[in-house]
């Protein structure tokens, strides 16, 4: 697989705005989870809500795209110099040569939830409900594409909680096939009644802040997030400089086991991990740290531990950052790709926030506290409903 | 991008399968709409089969037709699912429950609400552990799915099955997304010519404010405009004649924003 450079990143989660804020949180073990006060939801649960979305305005001319999900995207895109980087990229490549490959699971469904609550006596939705620019799954990519005035390929990957991880694969193959020369990869998923009540119905939600990989874990905390990276080719001489973060490969698989439960021994996860190593031309021993998908469900964390131990043995350090952000669903892949890139840049492995005692049955080397350690390559896992799995590998250029 | 079409599946109003659709298109006849009969997915265990709605049956059914024609094993086949609207019946049921006091969503409804539910059921039915993605490109969903699938064929040098499908929403969502017809298409695409190959495609993109190819027959043109998956009809029209092509035939399909997808077709 060709090497692609993550030349710019930006992020917004419940931990705050921008890369520096997130790195400070990961280094100190801060969590953004708090008791749920979202809308009129009466669930005993913690959520990772992004501060400041209620009054955020989208750029003039794009107000038709106004919904919580696109506001989260807007907030992230305003951070970390992403606007300037895109202006420069657009000048270098041209608007038609930059693709937009994003992920979301629920897009702007909160707008449809509000519209259903406001149905009139004959059951009609209010006239101001704009389906195509809010609720439709592609709304996010259309918004980002218009925001930067781009006209290349534009798609949304919607593979539940693996969406934004998998979007790296769509971008990489489009660039390899010559459909574009650079790509925005990432996406957003935001709080809505559908996911809060849906996960509650599956009895997968913890009343406490979630504790991935803990022996006493009892479910997820739902979070919201948006994050984006600019991917550029690294194959020209001198294109990759020491310290750059390089996307080395992605492995994708399907469990073919159950719609909402993972294979108990992590067979699908293992396949994604092995395929990522194959795509990158690497061995298990080349990976220095694994950012786990681990969301704090009983069966999910156990299955992933099985898969990770199977491939990497009991030495390779691994941790889950979901205790800090909550499970940001379709955005988890991009959030954790960015965290993995930061781990490489700072040579520090984030710990598993809220972990008290590692599950006694686990055999992989799950870190509780963060550790300063030398790292060259990291893997980040994302798995979702429908049995969809992906693992991606990032490398620090020497 | 250069790819070979090894199998085709179609399901739409008055278009129950590819052979009858092929005959209609090759003869230049217009469609006579009839109710679409969605196939049950025999390969699923009974418990899972009961949980599948219209959109899953539509997508999986059309994909299995294409793979049977290509003679390919679905278990090892990479797939690209693409749809603008996914499962409106499930979304409507959830949105309705959320306005009731207790917000008790059925667990099955919830996992069926994900955009990649057809891919999940496909994997269960075919025991397919191969890579599979599920995309949305609004009205450009077919074009974006074709680009992604063709890129995967060319870059990874493996066969990929494209499944593009859209189904009307129930009211009141229907009024907000006017889509009247059911349509799905599936193409098995491979990197090299084989005995199964029906046609060769060369796929490129360009920027233009121009529009894509239209259908000459009014009923087919109405269908093409109505359903994002039916944007594929001009391509199906070029694939339909039974005789091999003397020359390349050009088809233009609208993408997103100012992107047009040019497809040169040569029947083998």
Produce the secondary structure layout:
The complex is a heterodimer of chains A (398) and B (268).
Chain A: E1 4-13, E2 16-17, H1 19-28, E3 34-35, E4 46-48, H2 68-77, H3 82-93, E5 98-103, H4 109-117, H5 131-135, H6 139-147, E6 154-157, H7 163-176, E7 182-189, H8 193-201, E8 222-223, E9 225-233, E10 245-254, H9 267-280, E11 289-291, H10 298-312, E12 317-319, H11 322-325, H12 332-346, E13 348-349, E14 365-366, E15 371-372, E16 377-384, E17 388-396
Parallel strand pairs in A: 4-8, 5-6, 5-7, 11-12, 11-16, 12-14
Antiparallel strand pairs in A: 1-2, 1-9, 1-10, 3-4, 7-9, 10-17, 13-15, 16-17
Helix pairs in contact in A: 2-6, 7-12, 9-10
Chain B: E1 2-11, H1 18-26, H2 46-50, H3 54-70, E2 78-82, H4 88-98, H5 107-112, H6 117-126, E3 132-136, H7 141-156, E4 160-166, H8 173-176, E5 183-190, E6 199-207, H9 218-226, H10 233-239, E7 249-254, E8 259-267
Parallel strand pairs in B: 2-3, 2-4
Antiparallel strand pairs in B: 1-5, 1-6, 4-5, 6-8, 7-8
Q: Would you give an account of this structure?
A:
The complex is a heterodimer of chains A (398) and B (268). By secondary structure, chain A is α/β, with parallel strands linked by helices. Chain A has a single domain (4-396), classed as 3-Layer(aba) Sandwich (Peroxisomal Thiolase, Chain A, domain 1). Helices cover 32% and strands 21% of the residues of chain A. In chain A, the strands form three sheets. In chain A, strands 1, 2, 5, 6, 7, 9, 10, 11, 12, 14, 16 and 17 form a twelve-stranded mixed β-sheet that branches. A three-stranded mixed β-sheet of chain A has the order 3-4-8, with no helix packed on it. Chain A has a two-stranded antiparallel ribbon with strand order 13-15. In chain A, β16 (377-384) and β17 form a beta hairpin. In chain A, α2 runs parallel beside α6 (139-147), α7 packs across α12 and α9 packs across α10. The longest helix of chain A is centred in the last third of the chain and has 15 residues, at 298-312. In chain A, 65% of the residues are buried. The mean pLDDT of chain A is 97. Chain B has 268 residues and is an alpha+beta fold. Chain B has one domain (2-197): Thiolase/Chalcone synthase (Peroxisomal Thiolase, Chain A, domain 1, 3-Layer(aba) Sandwich), CATH 3.40.47.10. In chain B, a hairpin with a 4-residue loop joins β7 and β8. In chain B, α3 (54-70) packs across α6. The longest helix of chain B has 17 residues, at 54-70. β6 of chain A pairs antiparallel with β3 of chain B.
